[in-house]
Amino acid sequence: MVKLKELIKDPVAGEEYFLKGNSSCAGCGGELAFRWIMKALGKRTIVVAPASCFNVTIGLYPRAGPAIPYLNMAFAAGAATCSGIVAGLAARKKLDPSMEDITVLCFAGDGGTIDIGIQGLSGAAERGTDFIYICYDNEAYMNTGTQRSGGTPFGAWTTTTPTGKKEHKKNVPMIMAAHGIPYVATACAGYPLDLYQKVLKAKKIKGTKYIHVLAPCAPGWRFPTEQAIEVGRKAVQTGMWILYEIEDGKMTLSGPSKNLLDKKNRKPIEEYIKLQGRFRNISPEDVKVLQKWVDRQWEDLKIRLACQS
Amino acid sequence: MTEKKYWKWKEIETHTSINDLPPVPLSLPNYGSLGETGDWRTFRPEIDKSKCNKCYICWMYCPEAVIEIDKDGYPNIDYVYCKGCMICAHECPKKAIEQVREKKEPEGE
Ligand SMILES: Cc1ncc(C[n+]2csc(CCOP(=O)(O)OP(=O)(O)O)c2C)c(N)n1
Ligand code: SF4
Ligand code: SF4
Ligand SMILES: [Mg+2]
Question: What's the whole-model pTM score?
Fold first, then answer.
């Protein structure tokens, strides 16, 4: 495990790349995730941000929060833009080998990944484009005021699901794993060091890398801002969100999720949902449906883990 | 308002007039891209150094990156930009960060 005291003094990780005074909401999980992603990647990085909160959080012209090249992009075009940048860089690198160390990152929301950006992402993964795609998942279209997305969990309130969403969350990390890319991981803003280490690993691998980060959102999920880390931790401890890595097809559970394969070790999902106003009106029957879905995710994992060993 | 220089890799000028802006709509990195966000606070986190054990958990979790470590190794909060989310106070294992209500600015003058 990395030590905070050493990270503070580290020439790359000790630096900040998303500058204070930007327009993220107070206590934003996505902002914390981006802070730690950039600490792993450093300043030799080009970021593409398709339509999302992260076109807004960067602040107002003529100033910008990100201290790295950062392109705001059309909703569906995140991964396609990265493909173009990677191709351009490949041509430039022949003239200027010092560009070899540049990382291309797509930082997209759940709407921009799970619903709208998935075709571009799938195409880039099929071509093996050498870039990192990170989805920060706040489980709805937050920038436009909390509409449901393919990432919104069953039972959650959004402005377009006033009585709770009737469908379950789409499992995009597994869809990306099915592309056979060299690295897929999940992370959570409540565990920044786990995220940091996964991004460090992804940076060293050639090809398409996909990381899916759960990013608690105080205004959208309806919890007090100081609870953001607690909510992220509870998502993992209840098994609602599973932390793992898939390296060249081999899956390993990471961090606190390692001990949760046995249902006895998982906290009931009530501990997670009771912290959030978006689940305030969920019925006891729907809690059971959601709990069953969570348990099924774990059963699927068990089979996968058993088959590969 | 005086500008703090933040850019360690390359210094840039700060803009004072519309004529100083770049010819293409390119935003340049700087602190306070939305202004002094410390104005947002309802509560102010105050660190009691006598209780702090320098674990830097607060530094790790602060989304806004406004906690800096001073030369004695203590965390220090930049109140110009701290948004008062209180994650630091909630997560500090030593309960060394107190939640203090901000006073209202005096009216007039
Ligand atoms: C084609 C298109 N449709 C709609 C919009 C409006 N829009 C901008 S951001 C956004 C929500 C993005 O949601 P998500 O990707 O989950 O990111 P978040 O805002 O939650 O961080 C929408 C609907 C747009 N910019 N382009
Ligand atoms: S979390 Fe608390 S004890 Fe740890 S460095 Fe911060 S103030 Fe000090
Ligand atoms: S209140 Fe929030 S923004 Fe302010 S120092 Fe604490 S964690 Fe950072
Ligand atoms: Mg979203």
Answer: 0.94
The domain in which residue A255 lies consists of 4-308
Pocket test for ligand 2, best of B55, B82, B90 (most atoms within 8 A of CB): B55
- Alpha carbon of B6 to ligand 4 centroid (Å): 30
Q: Where are the domains of chain B?
A: 36-104
CA of A208 to the centre of ligand 2 (A): 38
Report which protein residue has its CA nearest ligand 1's atom 26. Answer: A75
Check: CB of residue A210 under 8 Å from CB of residue A183: yes
pLDDT in tens, B31-58: 999 999 999 999 999 999 999 999 999 9
Distances (CA, A) of B38 to A22, A33, B101: 11, 21, 13
Q: How many domains does chain A have?
A: 1
**Assigned token pair, A50:** 């398709």
Regarding the domain delimited by B36-104, which CATH topology (the fold level of the hierarchy) does it fall under?
A: Alpha-Beta Plaits (3.30.70)
Alpha carbons B61 and A9: distance in angstroms, whole number: 17
Nearest CA in chain B to A68: B29
User: Which residues of A, range 40-59, sit inside 8 Å of B by Cβ?
Assistant: 43, 58-59
Q: Which residue, A276, A199, A283, A192, is CA-closest to A238?
A: A276
Q: How far apart are CA A238 and CA A242, in angstroms?
A: 9
